[in-house]
Predict the structure.
Amino acid sequence: MVSQCTVELLKDYNKQALKKSFNSPTERNSALETYYESHPKLSKIGTKALLKWFFTELQPFKDWVSQMSYVNINIPIQPEQPRLTSNQKASIKKLRDSNILYTVLGQKILFFAVSRFLLRINAEHRIPETLNAISRSITKMDKDGFFSRDQSHWSNVLVRPNENLTMITTGSGYEKCIELVRMILSDSSEGVRKLIESTKDDVSNDVKWNENLISSWRKDFHVILPEVELPDEQIKESSESDDSFTEVRDLLDSSEDDEEESDEIEDDDDIFQETEEVKD
């Protein structure tokens, strides 16, 4: 999961570097400083800080950790697997079935959406204060039940309309959901109609998305960016430097529509095991 999130953050730069074997400590430390401690486009946040914020400070992950602590689940260091009682398994499965963000697929959707949001806003707003603003928006979405697994807007695109609300783990639906969440956070109507049409064409004509619904979500949940003061020359320079980057990011994001997504195991015995199957 962390590896896939890191690839998403760095795919515009040197994706192969993530699989490279470094021949010297100097080369390795240089790569860590450039791509992990920092980030080519998030210099005031960094890859490491963003991952830590997402998995330790953002709701509802705090609730997830609290729930595991409440039922006395101790997570060992990988690759060891926790040994759970029947009651512990049932408790975790109930939580997973209640909210898409308690599934690996849902977590990936949210992280990828946040990543794309951050990398598309103006450079002066890529600061820690913006993470606080994002957190407020996501917390409000969660409290209002937006991420609940039984919400009709996930039906046929991410969740099967059956009694068990089974997650749909193949096809391009997850990619559409990433773009949906990103658009809601950014409060932009650009591309909304195209997203709705492509989702109905590529995923299912029964998807419940429409322009009025997405507009209401944007109104309620969009990120209110912190105020920053920059000289006019610096703002112009920042904006121009990001134009070509945004074009590349858009092309890379749209090229992933046909990928198959992770097979998320719903069986109690494999509650912490996930496998990845991607179509080339």
